[in-house]
Amino acid sequence: MRQEWRSILAVPLFVGIACSPIPFGSNIDWAWSPLAVIAGITLVLSGMLQLRGNKGFFTFTPSLLVAGGCFVAVLAWQLLRLANLGPTAEVTSLFEPAGGPLGGPIAARNLIDEERTWTALMRLATYGAAFFLVTQFARDRKLAQRLMLAIVLVAVGVTLYGLVMEFTVQSCLVLDFAKIPLEGRRNPCAFSGTFVASANYCDYAAMAGFICLFRLEEVVAEAGAHGSWRTRLRGRLAAVSGRGAFLLTALLILTTGVVLTASKAGIASFVVAAGATSLLVSTFRNEGKSARLVRLLAICTALLFAILIGGEHILVRSVDLLAKGDPARAAVLDLTAGAVALQPWSGWGLDSFYRLYTVLQPPGVALIFDKAHNSYLETALDVGIPMAVLIVAGMVAIAGRSLRGLSERRRDWHFSASAVAATILLGLHSLVDFGIQIPAVALTYAAVMGMGWAQSWSSRNSA
Question: How far is 223 from 294, CA to CA, in rounded Å?
Fold first, then answer.
């Protein structure tokens, strides 16, 4: 009965997570709000089943308790701030000279924009609920495989849509949204699939690509595990052209999409994450030289295929960066660091950057930024340095458990590898961008991490 309920409750949640990238990366309220409702209802129903005698429906371990404790602490802190508990002096001193631009007596406020904070709090709670539910549902290997397949299928569809837009309207149209073309470029709009920003799509497609890459590696390794070197080679070639054909095709499509974005930091993070995780897999699983060579050849083949298609975009953008630099982003980072220094312990409230930017916008920067382009700094600005550290600590706890799964699992280790790679990817890219703050990216990451945690335990020592 417990397993039947898991399968029933997982369907709407998994569909919602997998389809979240389709409407603009769910970066609009009407796109992510339904999933918040689905996650909330699923969480309540699952809790009721646990209370009604289905013992074991929920499973907790030290790593999950650490991550959950950090997450709950952040939510509780924001609720306290919304209840007007905490420091208000800096908020008052900052906005009083501007004549109260928020339309009310600023001295009575604890946060800069309570409405935006409430909305961001709801999004954050949705990510946490989705992650926790996936950790519980994905303990079933079949459910985990279905979720991974759904994520890959949607990612491939999103990328194919983006390719159509690239060769028809030069990616300047995303669904019904028209991008502003950039002058002086052969392709005036960056490739972004169904996302508005190319770097955000890059993070999403990279995570789906990791799923294909490490599952393909596992299939190839299993096919060439025994016999002479000729037998192993034939088995691996047969696996690539047979069971692994879909995975290889999907990997090439997704890698092409990543490269076409011309996101310098995103592509670099993708390459580093893939290489570092492959090295960790070889180390933790004590693989031989031949297995490492096959893995290296697979990565190089995918990257070479994609670079032949989209390498020009990367070269053009890299030359522009070297020639002109990016003083606007540098000024925004300085602004963000200054805002963190004003309220380092309490923060300004979730999603407060845009409101702060409208007041503190540097005189020499004409562009309007709604994100800090450094998720670590922006998180510290939002919730304060202590809570920002807790958020990172929670992610590290789950990634650490997934890393252990590389050595403890004899099969299906690709779940853990994908989680580790996704963490490295977003951990690096978040230094200069904000992909993890986009709902579809955050939800996909929550799902990949949830599956990585759930499938990191040996069947002899199940979670």
Answer: 12
Helix residue ranges per DSSP H, 175-263: 198-223, 229-241, 245-260
Which contiguous run of DSSP H or E holds residue 392? helix 385-408
In this structure, are residues 418 and 452 in contact, taking their beta carbons and an 8 Å threshold? Answer: yes
Of all helices (H) and strands (E), which one includes residue 173?
strand 173-174
Residue 48 and residue 44: Cα distance in Å, rounded?
Answer: 6
Whether residue 108 is predicted with pLDDT greater than 70 in this model: the reply is: no
Give per-residue pLDDT as tens, 284-328.
Answer: 877 666 666 666 776 677 666 666 665 556 555 555 555 555 677
Distance of CA 139 to the CA centre of its chain: 21
* Positive/negative CA dihedral, 446, 25, 78, 348: positive
3-class DSSP state of 177: strand
Question: Who's near 327: CB < 8 A, 6+ residues apart?
Answer: 364, 365
Take residue 88 and report the two structure tokens written for it.
Answer: 């208000």
**Rounded Cα distance, 88 and 107, in Å:** 7
Give the three-state DSSP class for 56.
Answer: coil
> Coil, strand or helix: which one is 422?
helix
> How many CB atoms lie under 10 A from the CB of residue 242?
11
* Of the candidate ranges 136-145, 301-310, 334-343, 348-357, the one whose mean pLDDT is the lowest: 301-310
3-state class (DSSP) for residue 184: coil
Q: Which of 374, 359, 305 is nearest to 112 (CA)?
A: 359
Is 75 a residue whose pLDDT tops 50? yes
211 within 8 A of 421, measured Cβ to Cβ:
no
**392 Cβ contact list (under 8 Å, min separation 6):** 376
> Within a 13 Å sphere around the CA of 437, how many CA atoms are in the beta-carbon half?
24
Quick one: tokens of 402?
A: 């997934």
Cβ neighbours for 83, distance < 8 A, ≥ 6 positions apart: 110
**Tokens 């949640």 sit on residue:** 13
DSSP conformational letter for 185: -
The residue ranges of every structural domain in the chain are 2-461
- Residue 463: predicted pLDDT: 58
Q: What are phi and psi of 178, to 5 degrees?
A: -95, 120
Q: Measure the CA–CA gap between 433 and 239, rounded to whole angstroms.
A: 38
pTM equals 0.91
Q: Which residue has the higher pLDDT, 417 or 287?
A: 417
Instruction: Look at residue 107 and tell me whether its pLDDT is greater than 50.
Output: no
Cβ atoms of residues 435 and 203 within 8 Å: yes
Q: Are 301 and 216 in contact (CB under 8 A)?
A: no
